[in-house]
Amino acid sequence: MAQKQPTRFVLDFEKPIVELEAKIDEMRSMTGAIGLAGDIDRLESRVEQLRGEVYANLTRWQRVQLARHPQRPYTLDYVNGMFENFMELHGDRAFRDDPAIVGGWATLDNQPVMVVGHQKGRDTKQNLLRNFGMPDPDGYRKAYRLFQMAE
After folding, report:
1. For the chain, is the Cβ count within 10 Å smaller at the N or the C terminus?
2. What is the reported pTM?
């Protein structure tokens, strides 16, 4: 059984871009029967031009919507994509661990680095565990401890 692709959350100002991308995908599926390579290339360049125009002229509210986008990458997404050998460290050594703050040692281009960031959950259960990405005092103490370790 094929895995179902997650539904893409589309903001209002992104709809023209998504519609053009859907048309390109549809044309690609027909490419074997009809030579549409030139049309596809023109549409792809139009998508890039449209994307540049849309994102260069965002209103303040659209920027807020983009920052709150439910599918935006979070700290652990960046860590998994950029760093190697990430070893998460837990606790503030005074009271408890705050799961809203993630941090630990990793390597970047064979250089050891300390990575610290806040983490929000993708669903309700994870959000409750991570307090919706809002750290407690324990999280600030944890981050401070990690900063001192890095120093």
Report:
1. N
2. 0.71
